[in-house]
Amino acid sequence: MEESKELHTQAGENDAVQRQAMRGAEQYRALRKTYPEFIYHGFTAEETDKELKVTYLFEISGLAKFYPGWIFPKDVCMAAHGGRKEQKQRLLKEMLFSLGLVELVSYWKLTCSPRVVIKAGKLNEEQIAWWKRLYFHGLGEFFYINQITGVQAEDLMEMAAKPPLPEDEKIREEDRRDTQPKNFLPEPGCRVLVPIGGGKDSAVTLELLKEAKADRWGYVINSRGATIETAKAAGLLAGKVLSAVRTLDKTMLELNRKGFLNGHTPFSAVVAFSSLVMAELYGMSCIALSNESSANESTIQGSTVNHQYSKSFQFEKDFYEYSRTFLPGSAYYFSMLRPLSEFQIAGYFSSCKAYHDIFRSCNVGSKADAWCGHCPKCLFVAAILSPFLSQEELRKIWGKNLFEDESLLGILEQLTGIQEEKPFECVGSRSEVNTALYLTVSRLEREGIPLPALLACYRTTPKFEEAKKSGDVFSDYFDEENLVPEPWKTLVRCRCAGEEARKRIR
Question: Which residues neighbour 112 within 8 Å (Cβ) at sequence distance 6 or greater?
Answer without folding.
Answer: 28, 31, 32, 157, 261
